[in-house]
């Protein structure tokens, strides 16, 4: 199963992305769906809050061979993730930390736009 959805850079988009994951109800275990909702919400929030370039966000979701892969593409140039450090703000900056802790695999790529993806073993 594969689907893609275009989201505006808007504060409503993380909720729309979470609801998009609901299409997988019955396809994956509830725990996997809960993790996917959390992680996709964090990635879309990051794209909305941190990407200065105009343009939409694309959400790609694929389930194949027992693996859920979610990609969030944005119009930004990409970035190099860095680990949280002592002294970082306590009330923000947790999104990629959650991805690293919860996802089975994840990465950041950049071609003509930035892509952050994660995989969960279903």
Give the arrangement of secondary structure elements.
Layout: E1 2-7, H1 13-21, H2 30-50, E2 57-64, E3 67-74, H3 95-102, E4 105-110, E5 114-121
Antiparallel strand pairs: 1-2, 2-3, 3-5, 4-5
Describe what this molecule looks like in 3D.
The chain has 122 residues and is an alpha+beta fold. It starts with a strand and ends with a strand. Strand 2 and strand 3 form a beta hairpin. It is built from 3 helices and 5 strands. Strands 1-2-3-5-4 form a 5-stranded antiparallel sheet, covered by helices on one side.
Tell me the major beta sheet.
Answer: 5 strands, antiparallel
Tell me what portion of residues adopts beta-strand conformation. 25-35%
Mean pLDDT: 89
What oligomerization state is this entry in?
single chain
Shape: globular
Order of helices and strands: EHHEEHEE
- Terminus-to-terminus distance: 13 Å
What is the number of E strands?
5
Indicate the percent of residues in helices.
25-40%
- Compute the number of helices: 3
Strand order of the largest sheet: 1-2-3-5-4
Low-confidence stretches: none
Structural class: alpha+beta
Radius of gyration: 14 Å
